[in-house]
Every structure is written in C-alpha cells, then in structure tokens.
Amino acid sequence: MTTSRPLNVLFLCTHNSARSILAEALLNHIGQGHFKAFSAGSSPRENQQPHPLGLKVLENAGIPIHGLRSKSWDEFATPNAPHMDLVITVCDNAAGEVCPYWPGQPATAHWGYPDPSASDASDEVKTEAFKHTLIAIKQRLELLVNLPSDRLNALSLQDTARQLAHQPGA
Fold it and tell me: Interior CA angle at 84 toward 79 and 87, to 5°?
C-alpha cells in the first residue's frame, strides 16, 4: 500500500441499510487514515435509509454515523467515482449478483453475515443481532487494518481479503 492515499474499500449488500453501513462506519472509524470505506446496495429501495437500530448500535459503540446514507452501487461505477482498491460483499444475495464494472478492477472478496434486520423479532432482539453483527465485522476489519503493508498491495490484496473470510467473524 502506498502512503499517498488511503486504500478505498467498498462494502456491498442488497439494500445498503444494515451490514454494509455497519462495515463502512466501522472501517472509517478504525482505519487509522489508511483506509477510506464506502458502502452501497445492488438494489436499495426507493427512499432507503440506514436501519435506525444499526445507527443506534453504532452510536452506542462510539462510532460516528454522520454522513451515512443508503445508495446504489451505480454511484461507484461512474468514471468520476472514487477508485476502489477492494470491493467486499457482506450479504449472500449481493455476492451472487452480477456486479457493475468497477474502474481499475479492484480486488474482491465475500464476507457473508446474516441480516440483523431480517426477522419479525422485537426491536430488543434485533438490536442484539445488530450488536453481534458489528462485533463479527469488527473482528475481520481489525485483522485487515493491522496487516503489514506488503499484504495490502495490489498483487496480494485479493488473496488477503479472501483469506480473511475464513477468520473470526464468520
């Protein structure tokens, strides 16, 4: 990894309201300026917003939520979009979809997590699911941000990110 700019990481999910938002906020919080995280969805619903319980869990963990918003992955496939170094799908649905062409052919990996908002459970139960998902994502992201720079160069980034899929947090 070069020191001239942070490593850009895009987290993808179907609606961009829960897991990908958690990952974006968390990596921007712990990335120590070496990473810049973004998130998007393959098919966010009209007027989609980040899940309020996810935002609450992030705030309670001391992670800034300012500027988080749900958006389509099309935003990152345009010529003037930030160049991504790594694209990580965090839900199984998005992993199975045909992604847009990402300028610069970034490394890709899949880190699947269950959807913490998927059930008809109470808000209390869903809040616990969001907390567990945040912890699982954090375990992998801490491994990523603490890797030596030679494991983050363009040639080894894809292998490194895919190896992290088999680390805690699965």
Answer: 125
